[in-house]
Amino acid sequence: MGLDFTGDWKFFDNIKYFENNMQKHMSIALEVAAEIIRANVVKGIRDQKYLFAPLSIYTKEYKQKKGLSPLILIAEGDYLASFTIEKVDWDEVHIGSNHPQSRALEFGYEPKGLPARPHLAPALADSVNEVIDTLQDAFAKIFKD
Q1: Predicted confidence (pLDDT) per residue in 15-50, tens digit
Q2: Using one digit for the tens of pLDDT, what is the confidence trace for 74-88?
Q3: Which residues face 94 on adjacent strands?
Q4: Domain for residue 5, yes or no?
Q5: Rounded CA gap, 134 and 28, in Å?
Q6: Domain-embedded: residue 1
Q7: Does residue 95 contact residue 83 with C-beta atoms inside 8 Å?
């Protein structure tokens, strides 16, 4: 007399490795998701996709005189290059800019009369579906390994 278990036990085997699989797959997925967002920020600025407040006459004249790009948020390209991704841990990735003016450009700076030119928040919104797909795919892989 005994018990006879039949069926696919692979799922239960995978449960023992859940933590390792979670860290492996989600770590990669979070980095991919962060790169999706970073790419959308850069693309949004390059393509002037977002409805930025127009440049002041002074800024237009200054940029023209210096031979800089006439595009909003672009002068020489250093701002675009400042958007980076930092992996903090398997479950934490930071994306942002260390450019001195990044906060003022995103939110505006009233004391200097600089209007907000949101580009990170709209890029996040544009990235939602692709980021969700990336994270869902990673979550599904956790149970397949």
Answers
A1: 777 888 889 999 999 999 999 999 999 999 999 999
A2: 988 899 999 999 999
A3: 86
A4: no
A5: 10
A6: no
A7: yes
What gap in Å lies between CA 9 and CA 39, rounded to an integer?
41
With a CB cutoff of 8 Å and minimum separation 6, the contacts of 58 are none
Q: What is the pTM of this model?
A: 0.84
Q: Which long-range contacts (CB under 8 A, 24 or more apart) does 91-95 make?
A: 91/23, 91/26, 91/27, 91/30, 92/30, 93/30, 93/31, 93/33, 93/34, 94/34, 95/34, 95/37, 95/38, 95/41
Determine, yes or no, domain membership for 145. no
H/E stretch holding 93 reads strand 92-97
- Alpha-carbon distance of 38 to 44, in angstroms, equals 10
CB distance 81 to 7 below 8 Å = no
Q: Which two tokens stand for residue 70?
A: 């006439």
In a domain, 11, yes or no: no
Domain count, the chain: 1
Within a 13 Å sphere around the CA of 104, how many CA atoms are in the beta-carbon half? 11
Residue 40 belongs to what domain range?
Answer: 16-139
Report which of 47, 54, 29 is spatially closest to residue 126, judged by C-alpha positions: 47
